[in-house]
Amino acid sequence: MLIELFQGVAVDGSSAYVPIDEDEEEDVVANDGNEESPMSTTSRKRGSSCGEQSASSPGKKHKSPMVKLMTGLINTMTSENTSDMITEYANKRQEAKDKAKEKKANNTKESITHCQLLAVQCGAEETSVEYFMATQLFADEANRVIFQNISSDQARLTWLKRWCMMKKLS
């Protein structure tokens, strides 16, 4: 059964593969590979018969460019600078978030202040119920936008008075 199983198969060492460093690989690649191994000097290999073909061995496997690229990337990422780069990136990102938050707070403050000035300008005194209602309404950005988009002072004051009636403050 072994003869039937391994008929036509010859092992002469030429298909063996041993992983090596890249420096050693260059030396091996420089060799043409035309040298015959000591076991393959005879014309007839053990286990093969005259009329049958002998097995051929696969060529040497080389690292693909993608594998080399990923290896270089991994080596770069594991360097000492990686933790510094990550810390620096995290700090910059946090600074950007803080600046955006501060800018939004400043914009909100300016918008509320502008609406309060418009309320006084339209006739709502700071001691009036209408002015109090305005301070409650201006906490919401949508109400500030609506109030600023009203074209006349009289219409703004009427809008505030209607809110007071709706909330039963007048």
Task: Tag the structure with descriptive keywords.
7 helices, 170 residues, mainly alpha
Question: What would you note in describing this structure?
Answer:
Residues 20-35 have a biased composition (Acidic residues). Residues 17-67 are annotated as: Disordered. The chain has helices at residues 2-5, 22-30, 65-77, 81-121, 129-137, 141-149, 153-166. It has seven helices and no strands. By secondary structure, the protein is an all-alpha fold. It folds into two domains: 10-77, no CATH class; 96-166.
Q: Which secondary structure elements does this structure contain, and how are they paired or packed?
A:
Elements: H1 2-5, H2 22-30, H3 65-77, H4 81-121, H5 129-137, H6 141-149, H7 153-166
